[in-house]
Design brief:
Elements: H1 7-19, H2 23-59, H3 62-68, H4 70-93, H5 106-118, H6 122-130, H7 143-175, H8 179-202
Helix pairs in contact: 1-7, 2-5, 2-6, 2-7, 3-4, 4-8
């Protein structure tokens, strides 16, 4: 199909990667809990936009450039780590009544998720290594094949984000009445963000 080898396995692999806990999932959940379905969907679109940029950068060979110039790779890596840690710190020190770290305006959720996605340079290397696994050399159609892959990932990410958003919204409505639980979950999210930042900074 469009030069993609074993399309079913490709779809299954993407779904598996989407379900792995990480900053993107945390951004979706936090955005929904703060801004409802609109916030969650805006964050989903931010993740999709960031992924599309990284995918096409990988296709263009940016991963090879980053490998040649490791200083540039590590600079972006540290920027991403600092960004996640900063968000986590703000969540940890926030008090009841403070303005939310993630505002309720959908465009802010989009930018938040986009920034978290783009500031993960290893995603470029991941796509560079992942795509060849599912490219059929005999039926490969060049940009058409990569375009079909990118479109599939975007569609699956949107479906996954919609499911996570609706589930989070359903639970959030029950939790909002309990301020202590809400504050505890916000602190937990802050710790997770700092942890993701440290993992990104210390990974090689």
């Amino acid at each position: 199909m469009f030069g993609i080898a074993d399309y079913g396995a490709f779809v299954a692999a993407i779904v598996l990667f989407l379900a792995i806990p990480g900053p993107g999932n945390l951004a979706l959940i936090t955005s929904t809990s703060k801004g409802g379905v609109r916030g969650g969907l805006a964050a989903t679109l931010g993740v999709i936009a960031g992924d599309q940029v990284l995918m096409w950068m990988a296709v263009a060979g940016v991963a090879a450039v980053l490998a040649t110039y490791p200083t540039a790779f590590h600079a972006v890596q540290w920027m991403g780590a600092a960004y996640l840690a900063w968000l986590g710190y703000r969540m940890l020190v926030a008090k009841p009544g403070d303005a939310p770290v993630l505002t309720i305006r959908p465009r802010e959720y989009f930018r938040q998720a986009l920034g978290i996605t783009l500031l993960n340079p290893k995603a470029i290397v991941f796509y560079m290594a992942f795509f060849p696994l599912f490219v059929n050399p005999q039926t490969h159609l060049g940009l058409v094949t990569f375009g079909a892959m990118a479109a599939t990932i975007a569609a699956l990410t949107f479906a996954y984000g919609l499911i996570v958003t609706l589930l989070t919204q359903h639970l959030a409505e029950r939790l909002r009445a309990n301020v202590r639980i809400t504050q505890g979950l916000q602190k937990l999210a802050g710790v997770c963000l700092i942890g993701f930042g440290m993992k990104l900074a210390l990974s090689k």
